[in-house]
């Protein structure tokens, strides 16, 4: 008897790291090819939700950095050259 995976209805992960970890597990499970089609679709849906959450978190962090740097976001290479 196969257990149905219904992770797509899970709430958002509490932390960025939790979302990334869950996303990595989903990718590994899907790459294994061991899931039936319906479960793969649910996992894919959950993965896209987690990816969106991670992207939003990173965009928010980038915005906070811009504010902290008075709106000037420098490229890493340029910042290192000046140091």
UniProtKB/TrEMBL annotation:
It comes from Uliginosibacterium sediminicola. GO terms for molecular function: exodeoxyribonuclease VII activity. Keywords: Coiled coil, Cytoplasm, Exonuclease, Hydrolase, Nuclease. HAMAP family: Exonuc_7_S. It catalyses: Exonucleolytic cleavage in either 5'- to 3'- or 3'- to 5'-direction to yield nucleoside 5'-phosphates. Heterooligomer composed of large and small subunits. Its main location: cytoplasm. It is an enzyme of class 3 (hydrolase). NCBIfam families: PRK00977.1-4, xseB. Its EC number is 3.1.11.6. SUPFAM superfamilies: XseB-like. It is found in: Cytoplasm. Pfam families: Exonuc_VII_S. InterPro entries: Exonuc_VII_S, Exonuc_VII_ssu_sf. Belongs to the XseB family. Bidirectionally degrades single-stranded DNA into large acid-insoluble oligonucleotides, which are then degraded further into small acid-soluble oligonucleotides. This is Exodeoxyribonuclease 7 small subunit. Residues 51-78 form a coiled coil.
